[in-house]
Structures are given as structure tokens and as C-alpha cells.
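Example 345, ligand adenosine monophosphate.
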Amino acid sequence: MREGSARSSLLRSVCLAAFVAALAVGASGCSKRAGAEKYEDTRLKMGTFVTVTLYGEDRERLKEVGNAVFEEIDRVSAVFNVYDEESEVSRLNRAAGGTVEVSETMAEMVERSIGISRATGGAFDVTVGPLVMLWRRARESGEKPSEAEIKKAMESVGYDKLNLPIKTNRVRFEVTGMSLDFGAIAKGYAVERAAEVVRASGVESGLINAGGDIRAVGAKPGDAPWALGIRDPRKRRSLLLEVYLKDAAVATSGDYEQYLEGEGERESHIIDPRTGHGTRKTISVTVIAPDAALADALATALSVLGPVEGLEVLEKSFPEADALIVTPDKRVVYSPDFRKHTKKQ
Ligand code: AMP
Ligand code: MG
């Protein structure tokens, strides 16, 4: 995180934790329940509050696993931190132009990201960096970019210009001015990797909640599903509904937290890479998927695509995922199977 923006990022995290979406519903602190010890800790990571909840028999062991989970989140998020000039993504972006040798973690993310870009027709696109920077500057100055500036940035955007030759860890940018931004997937990916740490440790029951990017490992003690409240994007204190998860992930994207308002119109921080403008088709999207990185990326992609195209893409390419979409006119649209997650299994 950029030094100078520490305060605003803290504020942003507080807002995020307050609005963003799903909260685990249940007891907090360390307690003995149904014969199980509970570990719970919340730390500020990736610009948001991350809460790790674990259940097991041995309190000391749970603490060790909890620490390892936070370490994994630190490791993964450091790779994709665009605010840190020394991070791998920043070094890759600076080296733009040639072929760059990257880490396994980066290669895996680039490969997955290109796959999701293809399947979403470019609605999700990690090469959106030049547009993200243009709009971020606009939010800071309060002045919208010109169409000429948007057009220029778009020349350096497009997943088809990002190359990762098969079975190599080498990334190549095909045009100048390109930059990668993993803001739409890195949090989910970090949460997914953290869930792998939990599973590998032998702990069978846990929840990792990174400000609305959530991964459930197994069920709660007694085989109960994790109950998660999805907040109403336009009524901060209300819940839209509750979902019940076992061994699955949920992510929410929305424009409620970062946007530029001018001439009565909002510009979301989620950009449609095909137009260069903030998305106008949704105000919030929640995706449930088997994997937190996929849930995160799809929540962003469907924010761009809107309910019609979005549900078509889910049906065709991601039948394992479900979505709830809130449109600007406040309609709530569900994928056909979403409702099954609102019933306690
Ligand atoms: P999320 O909150 O997961 O929807 O991610 C939003 C962040 O992802 C933005 O702040 C940008 O950094 C980046 N981003 C914006 N639009 C896109 C897009 N269409 N595809 C991929 N990343 C994007
Ligand atoms: Mg996302």
C-alpha cells in the first residue's frame, strides 16, 4: 500500500468492511462449542479487514494455522500490489515491452486471467491497467478524462496483447504502454490460497473473509453450513438475503464504494474494457463459486456484462457458479440455481 495513502486506504477499508457485503453471522472470540475450539482473528490486509475463523480440537494448533493463513495472504497479495513499486506486478509493468521471466504465482494468475477474459469476451481483463490509472487520477482530481485520453489508453488494453507462451513462465506485452492490474481477482486468489493452507493443515472447518471475498473450508462444527449475510448495496444497514455455504466461495463487486460522480452520473471503479468507461449495467454483483479467485473475477466480469449477457456467460462457460445481480433500477436478478444457496441444506 502506498505510504501517502495509508489514511485514505484505512478509511476505505473501514468503509469496505462496513458495506461491502457478506459478514459471517455467528459468535466471535475464542469459545468451546460442540466439542470444538474456535480461533478467530481479524487483521488489516489488502486494504480491508480480513477475518480468519477456524474450528478444531487443539487451540494452539489452530493459532499456528491461523498465523500461516495470514502469512500466505501477505505472500500472495505482495506479488500483486500495484501500490508497491517493488512488487512483482510493478516490476513487470515497468519492464513492459520485452519478455519477462515471472514467478509461478504470477504465471498461474496470468494464465487463469487470460482464460477468464476469453470466456467473458473481455469483460474481465487484467490488462485494463492504463484505464484504471486514468480513472483513478480522475477520481483524485474530480475531473473526467477526455474521450481522446480514453481512446489512447485503450490502445494499450486487451488480453489478446498479453502473451504467456504455453509451459513457460515468461510474460510478453505485445504493445507499449501496457500494464496489468489484478485488482479484480487477487483478493479472491489470496483467499483461495489461504484456504489451501487450512486444508493442508488438516483443519476441516474454517472461514476466510477478506472484506466480502469469502471462502468456506468445509462446514461449521456439526456439519452446519456457514451463514453469510449479503448486504443491500443501496441500504447500508439492511441485508438483501442470507446464503448458506459449505466448501465454497462468495464474492461481491459493486460501485457503492469508489466512484466518480459528475453531471448526475456515476462512474464505477469497475471499467468496461470495451468502452473505456465505468460500468453502468449493475450496482452490485454477488457470485458463489467453488473457488474464491473465480468468484472474485466473475463478480467483476458480471458487473460489466449486466444481467442478460452475464447470465448467458455463466450458463455457457461457468455452470459451476451462481450469481445475484442488482441493476441500477434496483431489480434483483438471480441465476437459475442461486436460490438453492439461500436454503439451509
Ligand atoms: P472488484 O472489486 O473485484 O470488482 O475489482 C475492481 C478492481 O479491478 C478495480 O479497482 C480495478 O483495479 C480492476 N478492474 C476494473 N475493471 C476491471 C475489469 N473490467 N477487468 C479486470 N479488472 C478490472
Ligand atoms: Mg472481483
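Summary: The first helix runs from residue 6 to 19.
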